[in-house]
Amino acid sequence: MPSFGKSSRAKLDTCHPDLIKVFNVVITHIDCSIIEGHRSIERQTELFEAGMSKLNPNNANDLKAAKHTKTPSEAVDALPYPIDWEDVKRIAFFSGFVVAIGRSAGINLRAGVNWDSDLTTLNSTGSFFDGPHFELV
Fold it and tell me: pTM, whole model, 2 decimals?
């Protein structure tokens, strides 16, 4: 049975207990890696400036919405292992699995592959395709 390595466990431990609960179940079914949990304002700035986040931490409304910067983090980035950033179909499948595990536990998640939750994951609905991203609703 898969289990989290030290790095993934440490990142997951920076997250809200509901996210920890979900991913502790996910890892028993699908080997995955936690890419990022809590994010500093400096890290959020780096990602915004690189175009990898739409939330500008210098904008008060964006900072309020940035779930990775909350303590504990209300967002987590995770991908199935081995990681293949280009395999969007595999990422979308994984995303659906994670959201389903959350719902089965009464935890409502929104995934970066389907921001508006309309099941059109590969059409980049919402703002942009953020495959590894999951957040509490």
Answer: 0.94
